[in-house]
């Protein structure tokens, strides 16, 4: 009888994490590093990316950073190759990039719509395509962070919800296209109080008056069966599991991590 419990082990492996300087992306990086892996963070260049990379290096582990605009197709196609060059391999792609604008659907402009689609969907497609090409022979895994908004839509964030719904379809298509060597899955977070959610609260305060954002947050929390917000560590644990060998027989799936807010 084997009494040793299975554990996640990324020793010697490399992960590219887009949106790596954000709340969810940096949490995924910490989880990957804690399991012995190495990470390449990709995000907009600037102090935030530099600071997150420095903080992650402090406990040890190899952490590299690439400042990029993930709305640019050529950049997204080149990014996995740049990440591969650091360690001579690429084992995992974690798509944690994403932007969201809360605005009544009738007021969304063509440029606003396109910006969200470019970053949340088109950029992810080109990054996945290039990364899976690199991993096609040796194998690997892709985990994309979608949203529970993909399950039910959002009247005040139509571009965001549409992009995340399409991301779930892209996940299935990529899982079929790159099997059996590369596994492709997604997670659908509920409410995690990251910078994105702080922006949602501020947008609602501007749109509906002071306190509207907090009231909305309270309403969502009340609808959540577990009666609380999630922590970024809880989401990162699921991402790490899906990226690991413990999930070797899982592909083409989207896992809700939302305290029961959406059930399907």
Structural features, described:
GO terms for molecular function: oxidoreductase activity. This is 3-oxoacyl-[acyl-carrier protein] reductase. Helices cover 48% and strands 14% of the residues. The chain is α/β, with parallel strands linked by helices. It folds into two domains: 14-190 and 230-257, 3-Layer(aba) Sandwich (Rossmann fold); 193-229, no CATH class. It has a seven-stranded parallel sheet, sandwiched between helices. Strand 2 (38-43), helix 2 (47-57) and strand 3 (63-67) form a beta-alpha-beta unit. Helix 3 (73-87) packs parallel to helix 4 (110-135) and helix 4 runs parallel beside helix 6 (158-178). The mean pLDDT is 94.
Brief write-up:
The protein has helices at residues 23-34, 47-57, 73-87, 110-135, 149-152, 158-178, 195-208, 212-223, 232-243; strands spanning 14-18, 38-43, 63-67, 92-95, 140-145, 182-189, 254-257.
Cα-atom Rg, whole angstroms? 18 Å
Instruction: Determine the CATH superfamily of the largest domain.
Output: NAD(P)-binding Rossmann-like Domain
The biggest sheet amounts to: 7 strands, parallel
Q: Give the ordered list of helices and strands.
A: EHEHEHEHEHHEHHHE
What labels would you give this structure?
Rossmann fold; 264 residues; seven-stranded parallel β-sheet; 9 helices; globular
